[in-house]
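Try this one yourself first.
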């Protein structure tokens, strides 16, 4: 098959790495890709929001299968756009249409969806910009801390956890006044849940699904989960508190009702669903849905899949997932994200990266890099996602950090504690 992968981050490098290993892959293109994907595939300099440009690639390169990495093109209707094109009638697409992507694109939609289908989630109420007073009256009745969420996509920044009534009132006012632009013209006021989070992924064709390895990500920039929220500073898979009993609750209470709900609502969903879950005293609750894989979770998860990924991606897109399973290794994987100084705030780009050719057993996935005058330079906040593997967390950590210690650029930074919390849980 000729395959086009859309995106340019560490998630896409990891997907390209796995897709390129399949005997079913004839040619692999990535739009726009990064310096890492250029080693495994042909990068094409078309942006993820250039729907015309992506359609042209599908025609010129005789693409059979399109895999969409990030959420924005899905929420903005890339699938719907391509499906309208008569010349692309046979194109297989992994990624939901605009309607299905609302699971991620609108937190109000996803909350109501969960409520309609009795899927466990935190209680919440939505207020729009003409309902500031009602929102504040509601806040007064809430226990603190309370969670305020912008309804729309806000580049991972639209969630604020408020510790006091004053803070929550002020945050509500500023969000409804446009703190996150159009995304916060509606705001959910949500009950705060206490527990440990994990990410669960499925690939569904709208009727059946395959489960991918679960993962835990590390969102805060500082060690010990301190400091600002980021896109993700590391990931671990498997997650030791995701026992068989817990995962069977996840499947029965969350995954199956979600897929059944989509079907009942006549939403033809073909693609990944990422369940952002929280384990509250042994019971799973949904914190959020995403219409795509996680980043950096994918960089750990892909290394644990033994089956041919292209076979299941094609089965997903063509509606033939029934009976498919993904074989996974028992090995542990740990991804350490190396970021630019200043991230998630302002940071510089264009610094040459040294040590990328050093000998190590880890896999260096590129997240924000580019080739400049035959030198690989930094080109984003999250620059590299280094994945180590081992028979336990300790072994995987050693492999990842050994590689990380040999790579650097001006101002490079990483967390040293990825996986340590789970290692402690194992030892208890
Ligand atoms: P989201 O963008 O929805 O993933 O939210 C960002 C982060 O906010 C999550 O990963 C959680 O750590 C936290 N969060 C969101 N909703 C809740 C909630 N209801 N209770 C506790 N923490 C939450
Ligand atoms: N790592 C979390 C996300 O991809 O949203």
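Now uncover the answer:
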């Amino acid at each position: 098959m000729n395959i086009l992968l859309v995106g340019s981050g560490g998630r896409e490098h990891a997907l390209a790495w796995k897709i390129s290993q399949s005997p079913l892959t004839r040619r692999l293109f990535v739009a726009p890709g990064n310096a890492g994907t250029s080693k495994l595939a042909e990068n094409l300099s078309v942006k993820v929001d250039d729907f015309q440009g992506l359609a042209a690639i599908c025609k010129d390169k005789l693409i059979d299968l399109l895999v969409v990495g990030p959420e924005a093109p899905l929420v903005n209707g890339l699938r719907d756009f391509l499906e309208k094109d008569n010349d692309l009638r046979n194109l297989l697409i992994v990624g939901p249409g605009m309607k299905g992507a609302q699971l991620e694109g609108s937190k109000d939609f996803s909350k109501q969806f969960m409520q309609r289908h009795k899927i466990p989630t935190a209680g919440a109420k939505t207020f729009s910009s003409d309902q500031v007073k009602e929102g504040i009256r509601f806040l007064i009745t809430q226990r603190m801390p309370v969670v305020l969420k912008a309804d729309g996509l806000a580049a991972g920044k639209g969630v604020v956890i408020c510790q006091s009534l004053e803070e929550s009132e002020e945050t509500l006012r500023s969000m409804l006044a446009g703190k996150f632009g159009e995304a916060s013209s509606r705001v959910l006021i949500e009950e705060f849940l206490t527990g440990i989070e994990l990410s669960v992924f499925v690939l569904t064709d709208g009727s059946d699904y395959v489960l991918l390895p679960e993962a835990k990500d590390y969102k805060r920039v500082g060690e010990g989960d301190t400091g600002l929220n980021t896109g993700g500073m590391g990931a671990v898979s498997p997650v030791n508190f995701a026992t068989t009993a817990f995962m069977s609750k996840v499947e029965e209470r969350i995954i199956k009702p979600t897929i059944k709900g989509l079907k009942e609502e006549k939403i033809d969903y073909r693609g990944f669903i990422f369940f952002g879950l929280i384990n509250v005293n042994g019971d799973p609750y949904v914190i959020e849905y995403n219409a795509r894989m996680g980043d950096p979770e994918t960089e750990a998860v892909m290394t644990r899949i033994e089956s041919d990924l292209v076979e299941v991606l094609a089965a997903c897109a063509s509606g033939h997932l029934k009976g498919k399973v993904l074989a996974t290794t028992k090995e542990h994987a740990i991804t350490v994200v190396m970021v630019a100084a200043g991230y998630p705030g302002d940071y510089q780009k264009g610094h040459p990266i040294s040590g990328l050719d050093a000998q190590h057993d880890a896999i260096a996935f590129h997240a924000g890099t580019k080739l400049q005058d035959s030198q690989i330079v930094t080109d984003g906040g999250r620059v590299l996602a280094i994945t180590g593997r081992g028979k336990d967390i300790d072994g995987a950590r050693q492999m990842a950090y050994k590689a990380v210690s040999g790579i650097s650029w001006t101002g490079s930074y990483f967390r040293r504690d990825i996986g340590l919390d789970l290692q402690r849980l194992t030892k208890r």
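Discussion: The two ends are 48 Å apart (CA to CA). Residues 2-96 form a domain with the Rossmann fold fold (CATH 3.40.50.20).
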